[in-house]
Design a protein that fits this description.
alpha+beta; 20 helices; Neutral Protease, domain 2; Serine Threonine Protein Phosphatase 5, Tetratricopeptide repeat; 23 strands
Amino acid sequence: MNYKALLFSAGAALSLIACKNNTPETAEETKTEEMKYVEDSHTFARPNEAVVTHLALDIEVDFALKKIKGAATWNIKTSSEADQVVFDVYDLDIQSVQSNGKPLAYTLGDFVEHHGKPLTIKISPETEQLTIVYETGADARALQWLDPEQTAGKQHPFLFTQSQAILARSWVPTQDSPGIRFTYEAKVKVPENMLALMSAENPQEKNETGVYTFKMEQPIPSYLLALAVGDVVFDPISERTGVYAEPGIIEKAVYEFADVEKMVVAAEDLYGPYAWERYDLIVLPPSFPFGGMENPRLTFATPTILAGDRSLVSLVAHELAHSWSGNLVTNATWDDFWLNEGFTVYFEHRIMEEVYGRDYSEMLAGLTRAELLEEAVAIQKENPNDTKLKLELDGRNPDDGVTSIPYNKGYFFLRNIEETVGREAFDAFLEGYFAVHKFQVMDTERFLDYLGDSLISPEQYVSIEVDKWIYAPGIPDNLPEVHSNRFKEVDAEVVAFDVNGHIPSEEKTKAWTTHEWLHFINSLPRQMDAEKLAALDKAYQLSNSGNSEILAAWFQPTLRSNYQPVYPKVEDFLIRVGRRKFLTPTYMAMVESDKKDMALRIYEKARPNYHAVSRETLDDKLAYSKEG
């Protein structure tokens, strides 16, 4: 089926998309092939007129002022009639713009909520490079400045960035669309006792000058620009993998990530060579708003996955999988977000199956299915269109699309295809998909064309109900089943506990993994007898769990059931941890059980520790105003 006629139907600006469907013979051919653009409503850029191709960044990180200041020098490619180039900026102080030492005229347009302002620079068709001198402002939403007491070591401050979805524009003037790719180099000056790291080739130890240089030779979109600065050290895991962390937790992190090289090998065996040379991770302070961020060559990871038993490393498999799905082949716009995340969840589960076995990966799939069905019901009530795979985010914050739908519904759509055509055929299709489209971008309609041309027949297209999965709200009736024998045993214990308060025996639970405990807790009624919960807590000390996933899951039934002994644990957790996946349901459990005053009291204390991404979500959910 041909969907290309739909490509130019939505949005106000443009995103990059390759139009060639044959595997490029060389990297040079990939760079020079003809490109088209589809509309992206979340950028002011006009890449048909002038598009960035390479960034040379020269900045200083000032912890005293909590500012980044310096210059961004961009190489640009222009059309023959171009007289301007447009960048995205958000709360940046633009001090000058020049080309070849001569000033260029520029204007800043009106502020648009979430988007910031367009920076329009006058150029000629001969302009090939320009330099923007700037400083970040107090509302640089990508930047999280941490005081020493907010770190593990308590001695030095810390800075990290979170550029996804459209926050890169708040620390670098850029064309901030996932469809516009560029290479980059950087020079970053930081305090002498700190290490700077980026989504690029990285140093592995501090130097005496505090000046670090970086190079990223593979083209990336701006949401993958990343910077971290802190008192961190490096420890290798294999020749091409390793971990950065604060000195006090490096040993724990290395233990937790011991299987990373096995994951890389498994991923390459499935879908082709790893294209980014090294795969390292950095464990960030607890305020990091996500589980992980797939910044190329350097995954940003939450410390909440350091469970001490390697039970939460599927998150690492997920971020590693992004090295193919997302970083190598990127969604053209944020409406196509499922092409990044649905593919990545599918790939994550396949990596985990290769390393730990089918029983293990099916438990993950079972948790994924349950999360999808539960969250879809909640999203249906607020905005049914957000349960479509092809999102409709025009005029909205693209972060609104970060729900379980692109991840989990996307995963089950791909699993449905696999179960229809067979794993061998689907694996061959995916390996070819990544090879053909590497360092390019993809939109939903073009993917469906490629799927129809390369894998499924018209009859299979109908039987899978592709259009319903992509364009209709809700969860289709042909949602694949998950078969986990280990979860069936847990289900029997849930029933016994719910009906008569029977506590699962230590003999049965001693072999349970984190995933079985999560399935048990998540299967409990939303509200139940607090005495039953107290007995379970006494037996297994769930309120004192050192596993953040288990603890956050445990808060849901206990808060809704008014189990008061958990309240101090909830407050301590919410003040320490900034991961939005845990924060939102926990605050909502308080609100939905008539404890909004408690939620607001805790939020008032905890909010300064949260990244802007988490604050924006919770300000809205809690109807919070700093003015009271």
